[in-house]
Write a structure and sequence with these properties.
The complex is a heterodimer of chains A (315) and B (279).
Chain A (H helix, E strand, L loop, with lengths): L5 E2 L1 H15 L3 E5 L3 H4 L1 H7 L4 E3 L4 H13 L3 E5 L2 H6 L2 H9 L5 E5 L18 H6 L5 E3 L4 H11 L6 E4 L5 E2 L15 E3 L4 E5 L3 H14 L4 E5 L2 E3 L3 H11 L2 E8 L4 H12 L4 E6 L9 H7 L4 H14 L2
Parallel strand pairs in A: 2-3, 2-4, 4-5, 5-7, 6-7, 10-11, 10-13, 13-14
Antiparallel strand pairs in A: 1-8, 6-12, 9-11
Helix pairs in contact in A: 1-3, 1-8, 4-6, 9-13, 10-11
Chain B lengths: L5 H25 L4 H18 L14 E4 L5 H11 L39 H14 L6 E6 L6 H12 L5 E7 L2 E2 L2 E2 H4 L5 H7 L3 E6 L3 H13 L5 E6 L22 H10 L6
Helix pairs in contact in B: 1-2, 1-3, 1-9, 2-3, 2-8, 4-5
Classes of the chains: A alpha/beta (315), B alpha/beta (279).
């Protein structure tokens, strides 16, 4: 149905890690018994001495990472997003964010598209948890190529970073050779009537929604807000100023996720009609990806409908 | 068994007394803090910073230094006191504890205080962090050692045991954990709040070499640490039987002084018992 090839973010994460391992001796990787799923197993196979499986003990893994970082290592920590954020919030707060440790928390299986595992595994509040932590950078790569570029880029940054990736293959929207700039939100499609700001898997939905809106003579701009913190306020405010209305779309709870972050920027800087598309304040359930996306309001139609609502309020 | 002459032991005991005195004074000045667990750990800290550890207060970032992690972060006053005594910063700074703008936060902050290796305070994190440092040392083929001081209340925390398992699994014989077994936690006796015994057997079952000592006896602290250094292929836990509030008669074994500053009268009495203020 979609016009893009799909590819795995996890696979690209694994590939980037192996390259980093070759380039730099200070890179170490930790996982909590999910390395074959998160693809840190690729690094483990290439550099067994620099990979530490911590078993099903995520809290312990985060503090162990802190000790390694305190000794000068650049540490990548991976597991599923539900365990790596919620279960370890205190460890991340006390031992990673507060002391500004050089730790990259790259977590997979985020959001509702985990699918069949159900609500216990579908974290829809991880962006909220991570973005309220001082010193934390929060990145949601849009696709597989951007995941690779983001991982290579953050390895060069000092300090804690959270990277959220999904389980399923996602449409590849970006040029594999395009460099990743933290805090610089790329405009994926220009437009003057309304701005659709997406992150992660929802950016492709925004692009499809823009095609739909074009049929109604609505010229929609689409922004890939891959960095939720620090926020590219300049691009957001400019879009609001130039298009006069904003719709955000995220595979995350509408409570304190990306859309809320954008809303705060607009409230304080430039008021325009706005609507947030995202998962309502409820837990998910088992199901197929597309079925869940539909039930929980994450479709192209949801974005189009939100856009029409904003356009109506726009004067 | 090594023999230490009386004069040398006496010097370490004098350092411990200074730590106790400074801790009480700091907590009194601050109007809040945790005297009980600072006093119970004073002898271990004196032995570590004035005999056991390889460290250089003039070069807190020296890569080959031994690392100390105060997992029971609420004993921060005792840590700051020993760091000042060792020369990481001036002793006069101690009176700024818990005050606005101070480098001496209520609980240790590694980015503010020279000599503090790990930010702690939320309990049960320190051993895992120490393990990370130990893994890094092994990766870098460094011979420095990692010393972690845990409170016995931290044995309630699941992560302590996750870390115990990891240290054993990765054969971290460069890790030594001292357990300040003062037998009291905030709400009451440890055995009443959450039974820990048989504690030594628990650590043994996790694959650790275990030594039990009197945590106020310098010779025993040093000898147990030397024994730990000789153990290959597994970490060592030293269960230090201590008295909460040790050194101040009315604080010894007192629940009240777990996390409460002395009033003026209590402060004066405590300082008298500890041999008076810093000269």
């Amino acid at each position: 149905m979609t016009k893009w090839e799909s590819a795995s973010q996890r696979k690209e994460y694994g590939r980037a890690l192996v390259e980093l391992g070759k380039e730099r001796g200070d890179i170490v990787v930790l996982d909590a018994d999910l390395s074959s799923s998160t693809r840190t197993a690729d690094f483990a196979a290439a550099f067994p001495e620099r990979f530490f499986n911590c078993g099903i003990a995520e809290q312990n893994m985060m503090d162990t990472a802190a000790g390694l970082a305190a000794s000068g290592k650049t540490v990548f920590v991976s597991t599923f997003a539900v365990f790596g954020t919620g279960r370890c919030y205190d460890q991340i707060r006390q031992s990673i964010a507060y002391p500004k440790m050089n730790i990259k928390i790259v977590l997979s299986h985020a959001g509702i598209t985990v699918g069949g595992d159900g609500a216990s595994h579908q974290i829809t509040e991880d962006i909220a948890l991570m973005r309220v932590l001082p010193n934390m950078t929060v990145i949601v790569p849009v696709d597989a190529p951007e995941t690779y570029q983001a991982v290579k880029t953050i390895a060069k940054l000092k300090g804690p970073v959270y990277v959220r990736i999904g389980r399923s293959d996602v449409p590849s929207l970006t040029d594999p050779s395009a460099p990743f700039e933290v805090n610089k939100a790329p405009v994926m499609r220009d437009g003057k009537d309304i701005t659709l700001i997406g992150c992660g898997i929802m950016v492709s939905k925004c692009l499809e929604a823009a095609d739909e809106l074009a049929k109604h003579n609505v010229d929609a701009r689409v922004v890939n807000l891959h960095t939720i913190k620090p926020l590219d306020e300049k691009t957001i405010v400019k879009a609001a100023r130039e298009t006069g209305g904003v719709v955000t779309a995220e595979e995350h709870s509408v409570m304190m996720g990306m859309g809320s972050a954008v809303a705060m920027v607009l409230v304080e800087n430039f008021h325009v009609p706005m609507k947030r598309v995202g998962i309502p304040d409820v837990f998910g359930e088992s199901g197929g990806c597309d079925e869940l996306m539909e039930k929980y309001g994450l479709t192209v139609e949801n974005i189009v409908e939100a856009a029409h609502d904003v356009l109506k309020r726009k004067k | 068994m090594e023999v230490y002459d009386g004069e040398f032991i006496g010097e370490l005991e004098a350092v411990a007394k200074t730590i106790r005195r400074d801790s009480i004074k700091m907590i009194y000045d601050a109007g809040s803090g945790h005297p009980g667990g600072s006093l119970s750990a004073a002898d271990i800290l004196a032995a570590l910073y004035f005999h056991i550890m390889k460290h250089d207060p003039k070069r807190p970032d020296w890569p080959d230094r031994d690392r100390f992690v105060l997992s029971k972060g609420h004993a921060a006053p005792a840590l700051y006191a020993v760091l000042a005594e060792a020369g990481y910063f001036e002793a006069e700074e101690l009176c700024t504890l818990r005050k606005m703008g101070s480098r001496l936060q209520g609980h240790p902050c590694m980015n503010k205080t020279p000599g503090v290796e790990m930010s702690t305070g939320s309990l049960g994190h320190g051993l895992a962090a120490g393990n990370g440092m130990a893994l890094a040392a092994k990766l870098d083929r460094k011979l420095h050692r990692i010393y972690v001081l845990c409170g016995d209340g931290e044995m309630d925390v699941g992560e302590t045991w996750e870390a115990a398992m990891l240290a054993s699994h990765y054969k971290l014989d460069n890790v030594t954990v001292y357990i300040d077994r003062n037998k009291l936690q905030l709400d009451g006796p440890t055995e009443k709040i959450m039974s820990l015994e048989p504690l030594a057997d628990k650590w043994k079952a996790f694959g650790w070499h275990v030594i039990e000592i009197n945590g106020h006896n310098m010779r025993e602290i040093i000898q147990a640490t030397n024994e730990a250094k000789g153990v290959k292929g597994r970490p060592t836990a030293i269960i230090c039987h201590t008295i909460k509030g040790k050194g101040v008669s009315f604080m010894e074994g007192s629940l009240h002084f777990h996390g409460k500053a002395p009033n003026k009268q209590e402060y004066e009495q405590a300082m008298k018992e500890l041999g008076g203020d810093r000269p």
